[in-house]
Amino acid sequence: MGATDLAEGTLLDRLDRYGISRRRFLTYCSGLAATLALPPRYAKVIAQALETQQKPALIWLEFQDCAGNTESFLRARNPAVADIVLDLVSVDYHETIMAAAGHQAEASKEATIAAGGHLVVVEGSIPTKDGGVYCTIAGKTARQHLEEAAEGAAAVIAVGSCSSYGGIPAASPNPTGARSAESLVSGVPVINLPGCPANADNITATLAHFLTFGALPATDGEGRPLFAYGKRIHDNCERRAHFDAGQFVEEWGDDAHRKGWCLYRMGCKGPSTFHNCGSQRWNEGTNWPIGIGHGCVGCSEPGFWDTMTPFYDRLPRAAGFGVQTTADRIGVGVAVGTAALFGAHGVGKYVQRRRAAAGEAKATVAAAEADAGQELDSELEEN
Amino acid sequence: MTTDTDQAVGPAEPEEYVTVKVWDLPVRGIHWIIFGCVFVLSVTGFYIGNPAWATRGDTGFLMGNVLAIHRATAWIFIVMVIARIAWAFRGNEWSRWHHFIPVHKKRRGLARHTVEYYLFVRHDPPPVIGHNPIAGLTYTVLYLVFIAQIFTGLALMSLEEPGSWQDSVAGWVFNFWSIPGVRFFHHIVMWLVIGFVIHHVYSAVLMDHEEKSGVMSSIFGSHKRVPPGHK
Amino acid sequence: MPRVVVDPLTRIEGHLRIEAEVDGGVITDAWSSATMWRGIETILKGRDPRDAWYFTQRICGVCTTVHALASVRAVENALEIEPPLNAQLIRNLIGLSQYVQDHVVHFYHLHALDWVDIVSALDADPAATAELASSISDYPRSSPGHFAAVATRLTDFVSKGQLGPFTNGYWGHPAYSLPPEANLMAVSHYLDALEFQRDYIKIHAILGGKNPHLQSYLVGGTSATIDLNSQNAINTNTLVELRGLLKKGLEFVQQAYIPDLLAVAPFYLEWAGIGGGLGNFMSFGDFPLGAANPSKDPDNLFLERGVILGKDLSTVHPLDPFKIEEYVAHSWYDYEGGDGTSKAPFDGETSPNYTGPDPPYENLNTDEKYSWLKSPRYDDTPVEVGPLARMLVAFGSGNQKVVDAVSFVLETLGVGPEVLFSTLGRTAARGVEALVLAQQALDVLDQFQTNIAGGDTRTHNGERWEPNSWPEEAQGFGMHEAPRGSLSHWVTIKDEAIDQYQIVVPSTWNAGPRDGNGNRGAYESALLDTPIANPEQPLEILRTVHSFDPCMACAAH
Ligand code: HEM
Ligand code: HEM
Ligand code: NFV
Ligand code: SF4
Ligand code: SF4
Ligand code: F3S
Ligand SMILES: [Mg+2]
């Protein structure tokens, strides 16, 4: 569904498209006034407002999440969260902040879904193992909630790495079969705002982009908006000059660390991470991870829980070689191993030929090989 | 496992050997330029991977320079790898592609001979002038590794500039593989290449010393001394 | 009789379901269920223990930071690493500001709507509201003009007909008893608190890079460095900024939070007799005054450690961490050797086995297993944890600052300490605690500055940073009093990797299901005897459950 559908037309037009009559609409308004315990005169006011309103409805779904993205959203500066919630969009469902509970909460959500054209924000991954029993709300699985809410939605915005890519619940061994929103939604545009959590600035900017330009912003190959994920941490890092100069922190708290040198050797994943933390920074531009002297861990990259760990080493470990087996350890092993093997063979050949030449061809191959191995080993040790 | 110590025991005495011009200038030139490139790429790559030497003063632009050298060398390396592949279709008999991939029946027979020779089953080396088929295959694998290294290098380069041609050529790999995974691969391939070079040089030196076929000098000066009748 | 089911129980973190039996207008039995599980304990297995804090911090984005702290303490305890004093003080500053933040957000954004009828605020007179506000506090935004502006904004909002997050609240419920002016004042402070929490938490950005989910923890200390002559370390700029923010926090608590609490409480004094629950309380205590890990040195803490049993404030029992065990009798997990037994965290197991109804479902089978929470017990006894428990333990231990603050609130309300054992008491204790800790944060900043002035700028102890300096096998636990209560992480490290990781969480203590002996947890027992005016609109359930400030992402992890 085109995002412009949402920007165009009043609620009444939209309801009309869903086959809801004006009479039913007015009944709804007086019902609304009643649920709000408003004096009856409000029914008319509401009806008037609803007929002309342009405020898009938003449903914020939380699944296997930690509410970190909600908290991040609460730190929004421009516009502030109060302005967003009161003036820009109608947040009709958000478990962490909404007044209603239980079936009344679900009813509010269902009404919005029925009207269609709404935005769906997803926070947290969706478990799919064992029929999705690892996350149920009001007795229904997360997956069912997501599928229902996406039906007729204008767009789905996945906030945070959990809903974008599965996040921590999907980290090996992914005990609940956790998946991303995108992998379970079809027919609706999905945008990913990864990060752990997503930066409030990027959430509000995406909403603002949608409201201002009537469409979702352009994205990269991982479904992330380019305005926030189009450039690497490393290419926008305040410590980059120290990287280029070869000035590195070598131990936590050393002189280089105090001076703000590059964290590359401490495992910084800035060179492998697309995010705008360095330019946008966090909490109204106050600071960011590298600003406090800790490497980036790549929290906006797919699967970073498995691909960027261990956090304090630049490169991942080879699977199945034990936790402390680095690329260099394997590499040196490979190089030395090859040298030993081929070297041994060469020496074996030499021995074989000498014996053949001296008429000692009976010497066994095994003996030759063993000799060769020993000779080579001692030679390697000397070096 | 294979080896390229293919110039081995011959039935004839060294005095009877004939001198053949095996490696033409492009082969030798490319060989030594690639050698230089791999050396520089490995030294710089090692520093990029483990910049253990931290600059203390304000004089350095060490990492920046090392990266620039790695990149500049990478371009030469890429051109040379392409040139050698092209030469496999234009060069003399011994630089042709079918010496690297044993498609002809005769080469396959020689391959079997070579394997048996390597496995200490036969005493007589395969009667070849250029590479034996197994050595050729080894170089083929080496070239595939080079291509993978070039590919992952371009992919890593594309990170700096999404939308660049490097991105179009190699950036798609990140749809299947994490960025650190690609880095890890690029890093560990350095060690594989170092492993190859160690054995390659070790056996060349050894065989040259043993067989006196001039294999060592051949890669400098093009000529090899081989028993008559070798192909 | 059909059960009253509240699912989702909103305005909390996470997915909580309450089922209650209501008879004769009161709750006769209740079941608390967490309906989401991620398996973070399982995911930690085999990983580098130095990474664990970053993983566990993701247990919760509301009480962000607390699991990171418990985790580094556990690993440091296992590997016998003592971080420098500065690191300890920075961690204290982060933790204390988290409390103020968490409590303010809970009071205004998660709990207030249980007591404040937003719709009634439409009828308020701005001038009278200003008068009310000025009479209780010198909070600056209290002019008639200010309240008129808020009233206009609210009216505009409501008349647009899209109530957004306020849709379908229990507005007009008979249990709402504040006058319109008090409601308008609360709405105004609701909005102010939204701004406050955003600004105040910059403390975390300054000391942790970002919030939520700070990124300055390290096993052995912190990645924040101190250098008064560097732009890239904690310097005088930072210290001045921190002081400003900490002061703002204290002011907001003094001028808004506490006065609001004291203004609202008299209208709801009947809630001082409802929702008491277990009467057993536990606190790990926290905020070390020196450098030592509180897992090792429980005596040098700003908030005391101890256990209170049977509402007896005269005896604070010493606490033994090894008396903590968890049941899974009614939890969707299996224990090797039978589900009726309890296990200490070092021997803990997390093997999920869902046996509940197939979704979509109407009711849980509460006779069997019905929650993703385990049931933690202390010495086989259910205990309540959280602000009330902490304040009671500190009060009982004679902590002068706590005694003063508690007495001030009780005297102002004209009630005795017995009212503390209630829903209202829990909510009041949280406010009292915010006050004490907002002040303490400034004291810690003083201590921090004094220490720096003395020439100590160390922030990390790297002696055992490299894994090859670790023993083949090590075990440790990290204790932290998180805003919602006593938190402990238990780690076993083998061959440089995590072999076993167990997390015992505050909200698990409170929200857990019945244990192997059939004993209820804190929520379930606090809900007993709660009056329910209208089972269709169980506002009263929200009040009592919210008074605990539930966090289910934490609880189930
Ligand atoms: C980076 C280092 C090196 C690489 C990648 C490399 C690679 C190769 C390749 C691909 C060939 C096949 C030639 C062709 O047909 O294109 C070759 C042949 C040869 N290389 Fe190297 N080489 C390296 C270093 C050296 C060094 C240092 C020496 C001797 C000191 C050497 C001696 C030889 C010799 C003697 C041959 C011809 C032997 C034969 O036919 O198998 N190479 N090398
Ligand atoms: C034999 C050939 C090569 C070797 C041995 C080699 C080695 C390395 C090594 C060890 C690294 C460090 C990886 C890490 O630990 O992150 C590296 C990085 C890199 N290499 Fe290569 N490399 C080779 C060829 C190439 C080529 C052909 C290209 C480009 C087309 C290339 C481009 C790069 C780039 C862009 C980086 C990343 C630099 C950064 O992270 O800023 N390399 N190389
Ligand atoms: N329960 C809990 Fe937490 C806290 N406080 C932590 O351990 O909330 Ni998310
Ligand atoms: S992405 Fe991070 S912050 Fe967001 S829900 Fe997941 S764990 Fe929490
Ligand atoms: S700190 Fe990290 S992101 Fe910044 S320059 Fe160094 S490696 Fe790159
Ligand atoms: S860890 Fe995440 S917050 Fe930014 S600096 Fe790195 S992407
Ligand atoms: Mg646990």
Secondary structure blueprint with pairings:
The complex is a heterotrimer of chains A (383), B (231) and C (557).
Chain A: H1 4-7, H2 11-17, H3 22-35, H4 41-52, E1 57-62, H5 68-74, H6 81-88, E2 90-94, H7 102-115, E3 119-123, E4 126-127, E5 136-137, E6 140-141, H8 142-150, E7 155-159, H9 160-165, E8 178-179, E9 190-193, H10 200-213, H11 226-229, H12 240-245, H13 255-259, H14 277-280, H15 304-307, H16 327-357, H17 365-382
Parallel strand pairs in A: 1-2, 1-3, 3-7, 7-9
Antiparallel strand pairs in A: 4-8, 5-6
Helix pairs in contact in A: 3-4, 5-10, 16-17
Chain B: E1 18-21, H1 25-49, H2 62-87, H3 105-118, H4 133-158, H5 165-170, H6 179-211, H7 215-221, E2 223-226
Antiparallel strand pairs in B: 1-2
Helix pairs in contact in B: 1-2, 1-6, 4-6
Chain C: E1 4-6, E2 16-23, E3 26-34, H1 40-44, H2 52-57, H3 66-79, H4 85-111, H5 126-136, H6 144-159, H7 180-200, H8 202-208, E4 217-218, E5 221-222, H9 236-264, E6 281-283, E7 286-288, E8 301-303, E9 306-308, E10 324-327, E11 333-334, E12 342-343, E13 351-352, E14 375-378, H10 387-396, H11 400-413, H12 423-453, E15 473-482, E16 485-494, E17 497-504, H13 506-511, H14 522-527, H15 539-546, H16 552-556
Antiparallel strand pairs in C: 1-2, 2-3, 4-5, 6-9, 7-8, 10-12, 10-14, 11-13, 15-16, 16-17
Helix pairs in contact in C: 4-7, 4-8, 4-9, 4-12, 5-6, 5-7, 7-9, 9-12, 10-12, 11-12
The complex binds protoporphyrin IX containing FE (2 copies), NI-FE oxidized active center, iron/sulfur cluster (SF4) (2 copies), FE3-S4 cluster and magnesium ion.
Residues 233-234, 237, 239-240, 243, 262-264, 268, 270-271, 290, 295-296 of chain A line the site of one iron/sulfur cluster (SF4).
